[in-house]
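Bench notes, afternoon.
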Amino acid sequence: MNRYSECEWVSIHVDVIKIINGKPELESTVDVDVKHQMTLKANSAH
């Protein structure tokens, strides 16, 4: 990592809920690791 680039790992948990007869029920869950990578142009202010 430096002032022009960044790399970050983020863990995400999602609950999938299904409405059955007007009541929410847990249908499934998802756990994922996401990599966020960003690189900026060193010679640009934008």
